[in-house]
Specification:
CATH architecture of the largest domain: 3-Layer(aba) Sandwich
Order of helices and strands: EHEEHEHHEHEEHEEEHEEHEEHH
Strand content: 15-25%
CATH superfamily of the largest domain: NAD(P)-binding Rossmann-like Domain
Number of strands: 14
Shape: globular
CATH topology of the largest domain: Rossmann fold
Helix content: 25-40%
Bound molecules: uridine-5'-diphosphate-4-deoxy-4-fluoro-alpha-D-galactose
Low-confidence stretches: none
Protein backbone atom coordinates (compact mmCIF):
# COMPACT_ATOMS: atom_id res chain seq x y z
CA UNK A 1 0.00 0.00 0.00
CA UNK A 2 0.91 3.65 -0.45
CA UNK A 3 0.98 5.14 3.04
CA UNK A 4 1.38 8.60 4.49
CA UNK A 5 2.87 8.63 7.99
CA UNK A 6 2.82 12.01 9.71
CA UNK A 7 5.36 12.31 12.51
CA UNK A 8 7.21 9.30 11.15
CA UNK A 9 10.59 10.72 12.22
CA UNK A 10 9.50 10.77 15.87
CA UNK A 11 9.60 8.07 18.49
CA UNK A 12 6.46 5.99 17.92
CA UNK A 13 6.12 7.01 14.25
CA UNK A 14 9.62 5.81 13.36
CA UNK A 15 9.07 2.38 14.94
CA UNK A 16 5.79 1.95 13.08
CA UNK A 17 7.41 3.15 9.83
CA UNK A 18 10.10 0.50 10.19
CA UNK A 19 7.48 -2.24 10.65
CA UNK A 20 5.42 -0.94 7.71
CA UNK A 21 8.48 -1.00 5.44
CA UNK A 22 9.26 -4.52 6.64
CA UNK A 23 5.70 -5.53 5.69
CA UNK A 24 6.36 -4.30 2.15
CA UNK A 25 4.47 -0.99 2.13
CA UNK A 26 5.59 2.22 0.41
CA UNK A 27 5.88 4.86 3.11
CA UNK A 28 6.06 8.64 2.81
CA UNK A 29 6.84 10.39 6.09
CA UNK A 30 5.70 13.98 6.59
CA UNK A 31 7.52 15.46 9.58
CA UNK A 32 8.72 18.95 10.53
CA UNK A 33 11.70 17.42 12.38
CA UNK A 34 10.93 19.51 15.47
CA UNK A 35 11.58 16.54 17.75
CA UNK A 36 12.19 13.80 15.17
CA UNK A 37 15.28 12.92 13.13
CA UNK A 38 15.70 12.39 9.38
CA UNK A 39 17.76 9.21 9.94
CA UNK A 40 14.92 7.67 11.92
CA UNK A 41 12.72 7.21 8.84
CA UNK A 42 15.12 4.62 7.40
CA UNK A 43 14.21 3.72 3.82
CA UNK A 44 10.96 5.70 3.83
CA UNK A 45 10.72 8.88 1.78
CA UNK A 46 10.90 11.97 3.96
CA UNK A 47 8.98 15.16 3.21
CA UNK A 48 10.33 17.65 5.74
CA UNK A 49 7.30 19.88 6.20
CA UNK A 50 4.91 20.97 8.91
CA UNK A 51 1.41 19.56 9.09
CA UNK A 52 0.12 23.13 8.70
CA UNK A 53 1.88 23.38 5.31
CA UNK A 54 -1.16 22.99 3.05
CA UNK A 55 0.86 22.91 -0.16
CA UNK A 56 3.09 20.08 1.04
CA UNK A 57 0.06 18.15 2.25
CA UNK A 58 -1.81 18.66 -1.03
CA UNK A 59 1.19 17.50 -3.05
CA UNK A 60 1.62 14.32 -1.02
CA UNK A 61 -2.07 13.42 -0.92
CA UNK A 62 -2.31 14.22 -4.63
CA UNK A 63 -0.14 11.15 -5.22
CA UNK A 64 -2.98 8.96 -3.96
CA UNK A 65 -2.64 7.45 -0.50
CA UNK A 66 -4.33 4.21 0.56
CA UNK A 67 -4.16 5.20 4.22
CA UNK A 68 -2.78 7.83 6.57
CA UNK A 69 -1.21 7.05 9.93
CA UNK A 70 -1.23 10.27 11.94
CA UNK A 71 1.40 10.51 14.70
CA UNK A 72 2.56 14.13 14.41
CA UNK A 73 1.69 15.87 17.68
CA UNK A 74 3.00 17.57 20.79
CA UNK A 75 2.95 15.07 23.66
CA UNK A 76 4.20 16.56 26.92
CA UNK A 77 1.43 16.77 29.53
CA UNK A 78 2.91 19.52 31.79
CA UNK A 79 3.83 21.63 28.76
CA UNK A 80 0.21 21.41 27.60
CA UNK A 81 -0.86 22.93 30.92
CA UNK A 82 1.49 25.90 30.57
CA UNK A 83 1.08 26.34 26.80
CA UNK A 84 -2.41 25.09 25.86
CA UNK A 85 -2.58 26.96 22.56
CA UNK A 86 0.41 25.03 21.26
CA UNK A 87 -1.54 21.82 21.92
CA UNK A 88 -4.85 22.93 20.45
CA UNK A 89 -2.94 24.33 17.48
CA UNK A 90 -0.60 21.42 16.76
CA UNK A 91 -2.85 18.62 17.87
CA UNK A 92 -6.39 19.75 17.14
CA UNK A 93 -6.26 22.45 14.44
CA UNK A 94 -3.54 20.79 12.37
CA UNK A 95 -5.26 17.44 12.73
CA UNK A 96 -8.53 18.97 11.49
CA UNK A 97 -6.58 20.27 8.48
CA UNK A 98 -5.17 16.80 7.81
CA UNK A 99 -8.56 15.09 8.10
CA UNK A 100 -10.13 17.69 5.81
CA UNK A 101 -7.40 17.10 3.23
CA UNK A 102 -7.83 13.32 3.57
CA UNK A 103 -11.55 13.79 2.94
CA UNK A 104 -10.98 15.97 -0.14
CA UNK A 105 -8.65 13.38 -1.62
CA UNK A 106 -10.88 10.44 -0.77
CA UNK A 107 -8.31 8.65 1.40
CA UNK A 108 -10.17 5.52 2.53
CA UNK A 109 -8.61 4.98 5.99
CA UNK A 110 -6.96 6.95 8.79
CA UNK A 111 -5.18 5.56 11.86
CA UNK A 112 -4.98 8.14 14.61
CA UNK A 113 -2.64 8.17 17.63
CA UNK A 114 -4.73 9.05 20.65
CA UNK A 115 -3.93 8.75 24.31
CA UNK A 116 -5.03 7.39 27.65
CA UNK A 117 -5.01 11.01 28.77
CA UNK A 118 -8.53 11.31 27.29
CA UNK A 119 -9.83 9.40 30.34
CA UNK A 120 -8.61 11.93 32.91
CA UNK A 121 -9.02 10.45 36.39
CA UNK A 122 -10.47 6.98 35.74
CA UNK A 123 -13.16 5.72 38.09
CA UNK A 124 -12.07 2.10 37.78
CA UNK A 125 -8.75 0.38 38.40
CA UNK A 126 -8.51 -0.58 34.74
CA UNK A 127 -10.08 1.67 32.16
CA UNK A 128 -11.79 0.25 29.07
CA UNK A 129 -12.81 2.01 25.87
CA UNK A 130 -16.34 2.73 27.10
CA UNK A 131 -15.15 4.78 30.09
CA UNK A 132 -16.24 8.43 30.12
CA UNK A 133 -13.89 10.90 28.48
CA UNK A 134 -12.89 13.57 30.96
CA UNK A 135 -9.34 14.78 30.26
CA UNK A 136 -7.67 16.77 33.05
CA UNK A 137 -5.07 18.49 30.87
CA UNK A 138 -5.04 20.30 27.50
CA UNK A 139 -3.02 17.48 25.93
CA UNK A 140 -5.77 14.95 26.61
CA UNK A 141 -8.45 17.42 25.58
CA UNK A 142 -6.67 18.23 22.30
CA UNK A 143 -6.61 14.51 21.41
CA UNK A 144 -10.20 13.92 22.53
CA UNK A 145 -11.39 16.65 20.16
CA UNK A 146 -9.45 15.15 17.26
CA UNK A 147 -10.97 11.73 17.96
CA UNK A 148 -14.41 13.27 17.81
CA UNK A 149 -13.71 15.10 14.56
CA UNK A 150 -12.53 11.84 12.99
CA UNK A 151 -15.58 9.89 14.21
CA UNK A 152 -18.00 12.55 12.98
CA UNK A 153 -16.28 12.72 9.60
CA UNK A 154 -16.38 8.93 9.27
CA UNK A 155 -20.12 8.95 10.07
CA UNK A 156 -20.70 11.40 7.23
CA UNK A 157 -18.39 9.92 4.58
CA UNK A 158 -16.87 6.64 3.36
CA UNK A 159 -13.74 7.22 5.47
CA UNK A 160 -12.95 4.50 8.02
CA UNK A 161 -10.75 5.04 11.06
CA UNK A 162 -8.68 3.26 13.63
CA UNK A 163 -8.11 5.13 16.86
CA UNK A 164 -5.43 3.85 19.23
CA UNK A 165 -5.33 5.21 22.76
CA UNK A 166 -1.75 4.72 23.90
CA UNK A 167 -0.89 4.25 27.53
CA UNK A 168 2.78 4.90 28.41
CA UNK A 169 5.02 4.01 25.51
CA UNK A 170 8.59 2.99 26.30
CA UNK A 171 11.44 0.75 25.18
CA UNK A 172 13.24 0.57 21.86
CA UNK A 173 13.84 -1.70 18.91
CA UNK A 174 15.54 -4.78 20.48
CA UNK A 175 18.72 -4.51 18.39
CA UNK A 176 19.05 -0.87 19.54
CA UNK A 177 19.00 0.48 15.99
CA UNK A 178 16.03 2.70 16.77
CA UNK A 179 14.68 4.20 19.98
CA UNK A 180 13.50 7.39 21.59
CA UNK A 181 15.81 10.22 20.54
CA UNK A 182 13.53 13.10 21.53
CA UNK A 183 15.54 16.11 22.71
CA UNK A 184 14.71 17.23 26.26
CA UNK A 185 12.56 14.18 26.83
CA UNK A 186 10.32 14.15 29.90
CA UNK A 187 9.04 10.57 29.87
CA UNK A 188 10.00 8.58 32.95
CA UNK A 189 11.75 5.53 31.45
CA UNK A 190 13.63 7.69 28.95
CA UNK A 191 14.71 10.11 31.67
CA UNK A 192 15.84 7.32 34.01
CA UNK A 193 17.80 5.65 31.19
CA UNK A 194 19.49 8.97 30.41
CA UNK A 195 20.51 9.16 34.07
CA UNK A 196 21.85 5.59 33.93
CA UNK A 197 23.78 6.42 30.75
CA UNK A 198 25.35 9.46 32.41
CA UNK A 199 23.48 11.95 30.21
CA UNK A 200 21.74 13.64 33.15
CA UNK A 201 22.43 14.02 36.85
CA UNK A 202 19.52 12.03 38.24
CA UNK A 203 15.77 11.56 38.36
CA UNK A 204 13.08 13.44 40.27
CA UNK A 205 10.03 11.55 41.50
CA UNK A 206 7.12 13.90 40.94
CA UNK A 207 4.73 13.33 43.84
CA UNK A 208 4.99 10.80 46.66
CA UNK A 209 1.56 11.45 48.22
CA UNK A 210 -0.72 9.92 45.58
CA UNK A 211 -3.38 7.43 46.74
CA UNK A 212 -1.36 4.52 45.29
CA UNK A 213 0.41 1.63 47.11
CA UNK A 214 3.76 3.44 47.41
CA UNK A 215 2.48 7.00 46.97
CA UNK A 216 3.93 7.52 43.48
CA UNK A 217 2.13 7.61 40.12
CA UNK A 218 1.13 4.31 38.49
CA UNK A 219 1.20 3.82 34.71
CA UNK A 220 0.76 1.02 32.19
CA UNK A 221 4.06 0.92 30.25
CA UNK A 222 3.81 -0.64 26.79
CA UNK A 223 6.80 -1.61 24.64
CA UNK A 224 7.00 0.52 21.50
CA UNK A 225 7.45 -2.56 19.27
CA UNK A 226 4.23 -4.15 20.58
CA UNK A 227 2.45 -0.85 20.05
CA UNK A 228 3.83 -0.64 16.50
CA UNK A 229 2.59 -4.18 15.81
CA UNK A 230 -0.93 -3.10 16.86
CA UNK A 231 -0.84 -0.42 14.14
CA UNK A 232 0.14 -2.95 11.50
CA UNK A 233 -2.72 -5.25 12.53
CA UNK A 234 -5.21 -2.41 12.54
CA UNK A 235 -4.04 -1.31 9.10
CA UNK A 236 -4.48 -4.84 7.76
CA UNK A 237 -8.01 -4.89 9.19
CA UNK A 238 -8.93 -1.57 7.53
CA UNK A 239 -7.22 -2.49 4.26
CA UNK A 240 -9.34 -5.66 4.10
CA UNK A 241 -12.43 -3.43 4.20
CA UNK A 242 -12.93 -3.76 7.96
CA UNK A 243 -15.04 -1.27 9.90
CA UNK A 244 -13.81 1.58 12.08
CA UNK A 245 -12.26 0.58 15.41
CA UNK A 246 -11.15 2.12 18.69
CA UNK A 247 -8.65 0.39 20.99
CA UNK A 248 -6.73 0.97 24.20
CA UNK A 249 -3.07 0.05 23.87
CA UNK A 250 -1.54 -1.13 27.12
CA UNK A 251 -0.78 -4.38 28.93
CA UNK A 252 -3.38 -4.14 31.68
CA UNK A 253 -1.04 -3.77 34.64
CA UNK A 254 0.74 -0.81 36.13
CA UNK A 255 4.06 0.06 37.74
CA UNK A 256 4.75 2.90 40.13
CA UNK A 257 7.40 5.54 39.53
CA UNK A 258 9.49 4.01 42.33
CA UNK A 259 9.25 0.53 40.75
CA UNK A 260 10.34 1.89 37.37
CA UNK A 261 13.26 3.85 38.80
CA UNK A 262 14.34 0.80 40.80
CA UNK A 263 14.16 -1.41 37.68
CA UNK A 264 16.38 1.00 35.73
CA UNK A 265 18.91 1.14 38.58
CA UNK A 266 18.93 -2.65 38.91
CA UNK A 267 19.16 -3.47 35.21
CA UNK A 268 21.79 -0.80 34.51
CA UNK A 269 23.86 -1.39 37.63
CA UNK A 270 24.13 2.40 37.94
CA UNK A 271 23.18 3.96 41.25
CA UNK A 272 22.05 7.31 39.84
CA UNK A 273 20.64 9.99 42.10
CA UNK A 274 16.90 10.01 42.84
CA UNK A 275 15.14 12.82 44.64
CA UNK A 276 11.55 13.43 45.67
CA UNK A 277 9.79 16.47 44.22
CA UNK A 278 6.26 17.91 44.33
CA UNK A 279 3.49 16.61 42.05
CA UNK A 280 3.63 17.68 38.41
CA UNK A 281 0.73 19.68 36.92
CA UNK A 282 -1.85 17.62 35.03
CA UNK A 283 -0.81 14.18 36.32
CA UNK A 284 -3.43 11.58 37.34
CA UNK A 285 -2.51 9.17 40.16
CA UNK A 286 -3.02 6.02 38.13
CA UNK A 287 -3.75 5.07 34.50
CA UNK A 288 -3.96 1.38 33.62
CA UNK A 289 -5.58 -0.10 30.53
CA UNK A 290 -8.18 -2.75 30.10
CA UNK A 291 -6.75 -3.71 26.71
CA UNK A 292 -8.74 -6.90 26.20
CA UNK A 293 -10.57 -5.59 23.16
CA UNK A 294 -7.39 -5.22 21.09
CA UNK A 295 -6.35 -8.79 21.90
CA UNK A 296 -9.80 -10.24 21.28
CA UNK A 297 -10.71 -8.44 18.09
CA UNK A 298 -7.38 -8.08 16.31
CA UNK A 299 -5.57 -11.08 17.78
CA UNK A 300 -2.81 -8.80 19.07
CA UNK A 301 -0.38 -10.76 21.25
CA UNK A 302 2.32 -8.70 22.92
CA UNK A 303 5.89 -10.00 22.77
CA UNK A 304 7.55 -7.73 25.33
CA UNK A 305 5.10 -7.52 28.24
CA UNK A 306 7.79 -7.33 30.91
CA UNK A 307 9.18 -4.23 32.63
CA UNK A 308 12.76 -5.54 32.75
CA UNK A 309 12.70 -6.24 29.01
CA UNK A 310 11.36 -2.75 28.29
CA UNK A 311 14.06 -1.26 30.50
CA UNK A 312 16.82 -3.43 28.95
CA UNK A 313 15.87 -2.33 25.44
CA UNK A 314 15.52 1.31 26.45
CA UNK A 315 18.93 1.18 28.19
CA UNK A 316 20.72 -0.49 25.28
CA UNK A 317 19.29 2.13 22.94
CA UNK A 318 20.17 5.00 25.28
CA UNK A 319 23.79 3.87 25.56
CA UNK A 320 24.09 3.48 21.78
CA UNK A 321 22.44 6.85 21.19
CA UNK A 322 24.59 8.70 23.72
CA UNK A 323 27.82 7.26 22.32
CA UNK A 324 26.68 8.20 18.80
CA UNK A 325 26.14 11.80 19.93
CA UNK A 326 29.58 12.14 21.55
N1 LIG B 1 7.61 11.04 36.36
C1 LIG B 1 8.51 11.30 37.38
N2 LIG B 1 9.72 11.85 37.04
C2 LIG B 1 10.06 12.16 35.76
C3 LIG B 1 9.14 11.89 34.73
C4 LIG B 1 7.91 11.33 35.07
O1 LIG B 1 8.23 11.06 38.55
O2 LIG B 1 11.17 12.67 35.54
C5 LIG B 1 6.32 10.42 36.69
C6 LIG B 1 5.10 11.23 36.34
O3 LIG B 1 4.78 12.13 37.36
C7 LIG B 1 4.06 10.14 36.11
C8 LIG B 1 4.88 8.99 35.52
O4 LIG B 1 6.23 9.25 35.92
O5 LIG B 1 3.53 9.71 37.33
C9 LIG B 1 4.82 8.91 34.02
O6 LIG B 1 5.12 10.17 33.48
P1 LIG B 1 5.55 10.36 31.94
O7 LIG B 1 5.95 11.78 31.78
O8 LIG B 1 6.52 9.31 31.58
O9 LIG B 1 4.24 10.04 31.13
P2 LIG B 1 2.74 10.62 31.32
O10 LIG B 1 1.98 9.59 32.08
O11 LIG B 1 2.73 12.00 31.83
O12 LIG B 1 2.22 10.76 29.83
C10 LIG B 1 2.37 9.73 28.93
C11 LIG B 1 2.23 10.27 27.49
C12 LIG B 1 0.83 10.59 27.17
C13 LIG B 1 -0.12 9.51 27.61
C14 LIG B 1 0.09 9.13 29.02
C15 LIG B 1 -0.84 8.01 29.37
O13 LIG B 1 3.03 11.39 27.28
O14 LIG B 1 0.72 10.70 25.80
O15 LIG B 1 1.43 8.73 29.17
O16 LIG B 1 -0.59 7.51 30.64
F1 LIG B 1 -1.37 9.97 27.52
Amino acid sequence: MNLLVTGGAGYVGSHVTRQLLAAGHRVTVLDNLSTGHAWAVGDARLVAADLADDEALEAVLGEGMDAILHFAASVVVPESVSDPLKYYGNNTRNTLGLFAAAHRHGVPAVIFSSTAAVYGLPETERVDESAPLAPINPYGASKMMSERILMDLAAASPLRYGILRYFNVAGAEPQARLGQATPEATHLIKVACEAAAGARGGVSIFGTDYPTPDGTGVRDYIHVEDLAAAHVRLLDHLAAGGDSRLYNCGYGHGYSVREVVEAVRRRSGVDFQVNEAPRRAGDPASLVADAGRLRRELGWTPRYDDLDTIVDHALAWERAWQSRRR
